[in-house]
Amino acid sequence: MDQTLQKALDQLDQASAAVRLAVQNLANAPGGAEAAGDTAHALSGGTIDPFVFRFAIFVLAIFVGYYVVWSVTPALHTPLMAVTNAISSVIVVGALLAVGIAASGIAAGFGFVALMLVSVNIFGGFLVTQRMLAMYKKKDK
Amino acid sequence: MDQTLQKALDQLDQASAAVRLAVQNLANAPGGAEAAGDTAHALSGGTIDPFVFRFAIFVLAIFVGYYVVWSVTPALHTPLMAVTNAISSVIVVGALLAVGIAASGIAAGFGFVALMLVSVNIFGGFLVTQRMLAMYKKKDK
Amino acid sequence: MNANFASFLYLVSGVLFIMALRGLSHPTTSRQGNLYGMIGMGIAITTTLALATPSAGRFGLIVLGLAIGGGVGAVTARRIAMTSMPQLVAAFHSLVGLAAVMVAAAAIYAPESFGIGTAGDIHAQALIEMSLGVAIGAITFTGSVIAFLKLDGRMSGKPITIGGRHFINAALGIALIVLIVLLVTSESKLIFWLIVAASLVLGILLIIPIGGADMPVVVSMLNSYSGWAAAALGFTLGNLALIITGALVGSSGAILSYIMCKGMNRSFISVILGGFGGETTAAADDGIERTVKQGSADDAAYLMMNAQKVIIVPGYGMAVAQAQHALREMADKLKANGVDVKYAIHPVAGRMPGHMNVLLAEANVPYDEVFELEDINSEFAQADVAYVIGANDVTNPSARDDKSSPIYGMPILDVDKARTCLFVKRSLGSGYAGIDNTLFYKDGTMMLLGDAKKMTEEIVKAMDH
Amino acid sequence: MNANFASFLYLVSGVLFIMALRGLSHPTTSRQGNLYGMIGMGIAITTTLALATPSAGRFGLIVLGLAIGGGVGAVTARRIAMTSMPQLVAAFHSLVGLAAVMVAAAAIYAPESFGIGTAGDIHAQALIEMSLGVAIGAITFTGSVIAFLKLDGRMSGKPITIGGRHFINAALGIALIVLIVLLVTSESKLIFWLIVAASLVLGILLIIPIGGADMPVVVSMLNSYSGWAAAALGFTLGNLALIITGALVGSSGAILSYIMCKGMNRSFISVILGGFGGETTAAADDGIERTVKQGSADDAAYLMMNAQKVIIVPGYGMAVAQAQHALREMADKLKANGVDVKYAIHPVAGRMPGHMNVLLAEANVPYDEVFELEDINSEFAQADVAYVIGANDVTNPSARDDKSSPIYGMPILDVDKARTCLFVKRSLGSGYAGIDNTLFYKDGTMMLLGDAKKMTEEIVKAMDH
Ligand SMILES: NC(=O)c1ccc[n+]([C@@H]2O[C@H](COP(=O)([O-])OP(=O)(O)OC[C@H]3O[C@@H](n4cnc5c(N)ncnc54)[C@H](OP(=O)(O)O)[C@@H]3O)[C@@H](O)[C@H]2O)c1
Ligand SMILES: NC(=O)c1ccc[n+]([C@@H]2O[C@H](COP(=O)([O-])OP(=O)(O)OC[C@H]3O[C@@H](n4cnc5c(N)ncnc54)[C@H](OP(=O)(O)O)[C@@H]3O)[C@@H](O)[C@H]2O)c1
């Protein structure tokens, strides 16, 4: 009996070891699968870090900014300063996130301060731009 | 003895079942972890389909193209046609891929044809542009 | 090579292509720009090779393909006459179109290698992107072939209009959509080739009804198409260089088409619908007796040598006659005699945007003597002679005065404001738009009937007497 | 909300911001553009709320924050005088800078909520991006506060130069880099706040040595900084709207700084190094006796009423005196009398790009009577009177003729080419650049000494006689 038991327990040990191995394999599986797809995935972008994409977007946006700002008529350079200021307050998305879902109260607090500050900008910036632009008129004939 | 053995085997069964469960959990783990990060990841872009990024890049590149082409001087519109033609042969990357690593021979064959065709363009396009541009000269004083 | 780094390099090559186009904003920076373009292409090719790491045999194939194509391209680029540019560009577009089809076919036959799934299980998104790419590519291919044939005179420039073609085209368009849906659901190679076939036919049908003279707009439009095809395949392959370049080329072609249409004061739609401007028609014989003052080369030489200021207005006829070198010689003679000589270029003179500029540059005319319409139009009033060589429509005052004229509203060069207006052309026939030019019968006009090159050479000779 | 769809919406809002700037290419499209900007912001906010789905309590907080800030902003926007624009923009920048710091702080204190890792295990990349964002944000904050104080006259405009400041700045810069490295390795909150503190100090030290008059360049530069800070946080949050907008704002500020420096013919570096142009200095008394022809309002009224063409050249003094409304009245009187009146604006007239244009627009001067330097400079030769009101440097011929002048090479308005040149200012003192204007002593010049507004009003009265 003892022998059989011993055998059974050995079996158990072996089995669990085998399973442990399988688990390990499985845990590594995603990596393994990717390695298999290899250059293919690399070329298709399957494994590309989103940072690369964001960086590309950033670079192209700088080009767009360059051209779009040079095409602004000098007569509207003051409104341009006001409106770029207004749109830079899109940082409000970070503030909203902090106030909305931050797990820590202190983070939510920072977010609330940020939210108040940029709200001044959002409303102030767009409205003052609107006020300025409303003044630019053509000769009435 | 039989009893003990039975017990041991039962234990084995239970153990393997538990491990199977663990394995399953582990297999689902990546998905599960993502689900936990939830809105957080969503906001950080962790789960964003690369298509969205590519689309953003595409849209911004259209803006850049719009501005950069309008800024081309009319005197160089013919070279512009030649050079855009040359750069559109960047499709060569697809052809290289097909010839270089395509598992199927027929795919490699298609790739080879494509490669020959765009090579005409790459060399022809840039060289003819160069030839044209070399002709534009300032008055020599 | 690391995939992230590769993507970064593809971005770099995209940016270099942007810099290439940016360089064209001025002749002095343009050569540098072209160099950026070449470097960008080099980076894209090297990166792909480094990523794919092909076997030695495959690598040999690649080198072979590049060498064959590159050789043909290089020789063509060296040999081609500047006046054949429109044809050349059309021919090159067709290659890009066909290559796009081939690349898509390779992807369908070996999806694993392109990372878009496995045979029988290709991602639906990739299939959609690919079928868009292949359809646009195939249309670009046959469309460009037709454009090439028409521009090269190997096919009549006459618009070939088939009854009910709009209906046929619409039916083909719908069929294409249905086929794409079928491809996504079935992933059948047969359907893939049906898409290719339908698109090839559509490409032909779309372009044959368009007259030869409208081909430049078509070539530019097809340029735009080849860009969108590249971008679509860029999405499939997840390649940033392709996506960025596709968008650039797509915008570029569209803008040039727009510029041409605006310069002709026609709508893009009317060009695409076709049936306009086939062969040049003879002068309308409306029964009214009109007198024309005809002059000789000697008259012209005398007039210009005694002028203070001469403005040269080249047009399509100069390109046909290859008269640019003779013209430069004539201008040199005049300048040596103290005459102020300038060139005035209408935005749609010739048959391609910038057509006249490149020909004048070929004849070594410095680009700072060549002016655009807005910059020189006010100077005609102070000019003694306007020497109009092979241009017609771009001087036609009916665009300014006659509301019923088909070109009414198109900006024109005010050659009629010059003291004397010399017209070098072979007949009193009309130009591209097929309408009569009342300027020929005006008091201050003198017609120099003959081939542009021969006439100019005779004038040069007469100047030596 | 689906994360992909949200990203798409962020892209849409980025594109709307591009359209907002694009609209400013012409006054007629500019209002539409501003509307696009508002819609873009609305989409960004709504999308974020839909993604985050805050609890009712938190939602209340958000509404409260928006309401408080929005109220303050709206009231400020309505009340602010147009002449105070430079200050206002500086003040607004400081808010964006501080908000960037606060957002970064929130991210450090609750990394899970921002998806950048867990407390104690924040991704290194996110930490780097964040510390860049927070450093630039903090510099923007204190820098803008100083700029605001100087522009608003609450602090002396004199450059405050501390000995060895370049050394201190360099040391602070190095300290910042070390701190960022430490933050990435330790993730300590203390170090985060040290970064904030060092950047706040750096912001002050960078701006106080710059003279009040150079503040516009600084404001524009800080505008650019606020953009880069937003972009850096955009990388951390993986938010497309932030990345795109940050790049737009960053470019915009940099280009405006460049335009200003070029217009002043100074290098950006020399502006940033500071120590230039504090208070306006008195006319240099070089011992040479020079005669000045002084006139009265009656003289000026007589001269202008009998002129055919008058060109008005406004400058900083018009802004100080708020003379734009009186000026418009004067122009109306002249026009009613058949005089041709135009306004000529130098690119750096006033203290802010487009400063004069916005003031004239406020006084209902139609923008098609207002011309830029290149477009009107040739017309001074045909003008009977150039009415220079509160402008000085932008007319100084030493920029054209005197190679030793600090403003040599800066383009100027050729008011000296007009038959008579009227200068309205309070003294013979110099302007922003602190250099003497030889034009005051020229034959064709008549000085109208006095406040710009009062003098113009007197001229208007005199015209009624
Ligand atoms: N540039 C573009 O991008 C573009 C694109 C599409 C369409 N177009 C159209 O093309 C036209 C261009 O105007 P254009 O004034 O340059 O040309 P045009 O109006 O087409 O006139 C060309 C003239 O050249 C003459 N000609 C032809 N061969 C000649 C030769 N060997 N020697 C001397 N004269 C010769 C012809 O008259 P004879 O037959 O009497 O000799 C003809 O009237 C416009 O209508 C424009 O809308 C331009
Ligand atoms: N626009 C920009 O973006 C910008 C940015 C940075 C720097 N700047 C610089 O600012 C300068 C602008 O030139 P500018 O010609 O407009 O101005 P300016 O050269 O600074 O001259 C302004 C003149 O206005 C007079 N003034 C001041 N208050 C007055 C009042 N109440 N009534 C009448 N006159 C008054 C002053 O003379 P009195 O004291 O004798 O009255 C002064 O000479 C340039 O040097 C430019 O480089 C411009």
Automatic annotation (TrEMBL), chains A, B:
<keyword id="KW-0472">Membrane</keyword>
<keyword id="KW-1003">Cell membrane</keyword>
<feature type="transmembrane region" description="Helical">
    <location>
        <begin position="109"/>
        <end position="129"/>
    </location>
</feature>
<keyword id="KW-1278">Translocase</keyword>
<keyword id="KW-0997">Cell inner membrane</keyword>
<dbReference type="GO" id="GO:0008750">
    <property type="term" value="F:proton-translocating NAD(P)+ transhydrogenase activity"/>
</dbReference>
<feature type="domain" description="NAD(P) transhydrogenase alpha subunit C-terminal">
    <location>
        <begin position="55"/>
        <end position="138"/>
    </location>
</feature>
<feature type="transmembrane region" description="Helical">
    <location>
        <begin position="51"/>
        <end position="70"/>
    </location>
</feature>
<feature type="transmembrane region" description="Helical">
    <location>
        <begin position="82"/>
        <end position="103"/>
    </location>
</feature>
<keyword id="KW-1133">Transmembrane helix</keyword>
<protein>
    <recommendedName>
        <fullName>proton-translocating NAD(P)(+) transhydrogenase</fullName>
        <ecNumber>7.1.1.1</ecNumber>
    </recommendedName>
</protein>
<dbReference type="InterPro" id="IPR024605">
    <property type="entry name" value="NADP_transhyd_a_C"/>
</dbReference>
<dbReference type="Pfam" id="PF12769">
    <property type="entry name" value="PNTB_4TM"/>
</dbReference>
<comment type="function">
    <text>The transhydrogenation between NADH and NADP is coupled to respiration and ATP hydrolysis and functions as a proton pump across the membrane.</text>
</comment>
<keyword id="KW-0812">Transmembrane</keyword>
<keyword id="KW-0520">NAD</keyword>
<dbReference type="GO" id="GO:0050661">
    <property type="term" value="F:NADP binding"/>
</dbReference>
<dbReference type="GO" id="GO:0006740">
    <property type="term" value="P:NADPH regeneration"/>
</dbReference>
<dbReference type="GO" id="GO:0005886">
    <property type="term" value="C:plasma membrane"/>
</dbReference>
<keyword id="KW-0521">NADP</keyword>
From TrEMBL, chains C, D:
<keyword id="KW-1278">Translocase</keyword>
<feature type="transmembrane region" description="Helical">
    <location>
        <begin position="89"/>
        <end position="110"/>
    </location>
</feature>
<feature type="transmembrane region" description="Helical">
    <location>
        <begin position="190"/>
        <end position="210"/>
    </location>
</feature>
<dbReference type="GO" id="GO:0050661">
    <property type="term" value="F:NADP binding"/>
</dbReference>
<keyword id="KW-0520">NAD</keyword>
<dbReference type="InterPro" id="IPR029035">
    <property type="entry name" value="DHS-like_NAD/FAD-binding_dom"/>
</dbReference>
<feature type="transmembrane region" description="Helical">
    <location>
        <begin position="130"/>
        <end position="151"/>
    </location>
</feature>
<comment type="similarity">
    <text>Belongs to the PNT beta subunit family.</text>
</comment>
<feature type="transmembrane region" description="Helical">
    <location>
        <begin position="59"/>
        <end position="77"/>
    </location>
</feature>
<keyword id="KW-1133">Transmembrane helix</keyword>
<keyword id="KW-1003">Cell membrane</keyword>
<feature type="transmembrane region" description="Helical">
    <location>
        <begin position="6"/>
        <end position="23"/>
    </location>
</feature>
<feature type="transmembrane region" description="Helical">
    <location>
        <begin position="163"/>
        <end position="184"/>
    </location>
</feature>
<protein>
    <recommendedName>
        <fullName>NAD(P) transhydrogenase subunit beta</fullName>
        <ecNumber>7.1.1.1</ecNumber>
    </recommendedName>
</protein>
<feature type="transmembrane region" description="Helical">
    <location>
        <begin position="35"/>
        <end position="53"/>
    </location>
</feature>
<keyword id="KW-0812">Transmembrane</keyword>
<dbReference type="GO" id="GO:0008750">
    <property type="term" value="F:proton-translocating NAD(P)+ transhydrogenase activity"/>
</dbReference>
<keyword id="KW-0521">NADP</keyword>
<keyword id="KW-0997">Cell inner membrane</keyword>
<dbReference type="GO" id="GO:0005886">
    <property type="term" value="C:plasma membrane"/>
</dbReference>
<dbReference type="Pfam" id="PF02233">
    <property type="entry name" value="PNTB"/>
</dbReference>
<keyword id="KW-0472">Membrane</keyword>
